[in-house]
Design goal:
The chain is α+β, with helices and mostly antiparallel strands and about 450 residues long. It is about 35% helix and about 25% strand.
């Protein structure tokens, strides 16, 4: 009897739910109603997860794009016959793999921080890495007498800042006649915080040539494969492992050294930095690096060239027992507040008044004994300026942006005072190498 009672009790609820549905004159209206209901439910779900869907969707799109690129590169690598093509394809395959790892790590990091409160304004800037050059350390007999070491390498670099990864061009046929490796590419990163870490990774692959002693393992493998059965020959060829595959096919690039640069390493000229070398399992595949390299690392904060906030402000001047108020159009940019008589003058005339806003500036927001209650004071070493906004909203906006401007100057330091030139991103497509002795 229990099942009968439960079904009887549930029947009225079903009828009431059915009776609450609207009536339709035809089937098309009913199908349209079902479609609209499904859309509303999906919109509610998206709105519920709107705090994390945007960033996660962007990362998912990047991961999907790199996966498709990886599939295309593997197909290209399978049909490539020229050495330059296989080297370029292997480099692109490695770059795609590293980007996928970085995007997945960033996605996990964002999911862990989804519940935390994020700052509304963050200090960002642009970073440029260029003029990378690495000296090599060959033996005297190898370089000057041109004998002994027959190894030749193909080398490139990966430059990483967080989940952003840029690769340089390949410098190939690096042998004992080459004293240094130089990369002409210019890598530019945007939306970088002042606590950035630039990781420069050096990858190399030892080339084989039939005319050199270094190609002996390759010759042995080909002879073994041709002389005995294919099955046994392939097993023996794999044991030689002279091609260092990427897990698929083609030449494998090994990570041989890396360096980490930070804000303190930024300079408007080329500087020398330490290079941490890694010990590979096979010493013959080790690129003879000297242990240091030089590059030009340039940073440019966004708040120097970008207008942070603009609007009308009142300058309050005390004259005896009375106060005088003058209204100006004001712009916050490049460590200063610039004042014009009219908004139109800001694009064609120099400012009538300028007030410094830097890390030494003090912002006082307490109430002052003046008529206008939306006041705040900017205090510098040599001047004090009393300002007033027209509304409560403008007052809070000016206070927030000026305080952020002061904080950004403190974070970026001297980089905000001297504007460094950042070149456009450039990656040369010509394979070449140059020696220091050729430039002398």
């Amino acid at each position: 009897m229990a099942p009968t009672l439960r079904s009887a009790a549930s029947a009225p609820r079903k009828r009431r739910a059915f009776q609450s549905l609207p009536t339709f004159s035809n089937n098309f209206d009913y199908l349209r109603f079902l479609s609209d209901t499904k859309k509303k439910r999906l919109c509610k779900e998206r709105t519920k997860n709107s705090s994390k869907t945007k960033n996660e969707c962007d990362l998912e799109e990047k991961i999907d794009f790199e996966m498709k690129m990886k599939e295309g590169i593997m197909k290209l690598l399978a049909v490539s016959k020229h050495s330059i093509q296989t080297l370029e394809a292997s480099k692109s395959l490695l770059t795609c793999t590293e980007r996928i790892k970085a995007y997945k790590a960033e996605r996990e990091h964002q999911s862990l921080q989804s519940g935390s409160v994020r700052q509304a304004m963050k200090s960002k800037g642009r970073i440029s890495v260029s003029d990378i050059r690495m000296p090599l350390m060959w033996k005297d007999s190898d370089h000057f007498k041109n004998k002994g070491d027959y190894r030749r390498f193909a080398v490139f670099c990966l430059i990483k800042i967080g989940s952003k990864i840029v690769d340089t061009e390949i410098v190939w046929n690096v042998d004992r006649n080459v004293t240094d490796i130089s990369f002409d590419s210019v890598s530019v990163f945007s939306q970088v915080s002042p606590d950035f870490e630039v990781r420069i990774e050096v990858y190399s692959h030892m080339l084989h040539n039939d005319l050199s002693i270094a190609s002996t393992p390759c010759k042995i493998k080909r002879k073994i494969t041709r002389s005995i059965s294919r099955t046994v020959g392939r097993k023996l060829a794999v044991s030689l492992n002279d091609n260092h595959t990427n897990g698929e096919s083609g030449p494998r690039f090994d990570l041989v050294a890396y360096a980490t640069l930070r804000l303190r390493d930024v300079a408007d000229s080329i500087k020398t930095h330490d290079l941490l070398q890694l010990n590979l399992e096979d010493p013959c595949h080790q690129l003879p690096l000297f242990g240091c390299f030089c590059c030009r690392l340039v940073a440019q904060p966004d708040f120097v060239n970008v207008e942070r906030f603009a609007g009308y402000l009142n300058i309050i001047q005390n004259e005896g027992n009375a106060s005088k108020t003058r209204t100006f159009w004001c712009s916050l940019k490049n460590l200063q507040l610039a004042f014009w008589q009219k908004c139109e003058d800001s694009s064609c005339k120099p400012p009538a008044i300028t007030v410094a806003v830097n890390k030494d500036t003090k912002l006082e927001t307490r109430l002052f004994n003046v008529i206008n209650s939306f006041c705040f004071k900017i205090v510098n070493l040599t001047e004090e300026v009393m300002l007033a906004a027209n509304t409560v909203q403008h007052h809070s906006q000016w206070i927030s942006h000026i305080a952020q401007h002061i904080k950004e100057h403190d974070l970026w330091g001297y980089l905000a005072e001297s504007v460094m030139k950042i070149s456009s991103p450039f990656v040369p497509h010509v394979f070449r190498h140059q020696s220091l002795y050729e430039e002398a």
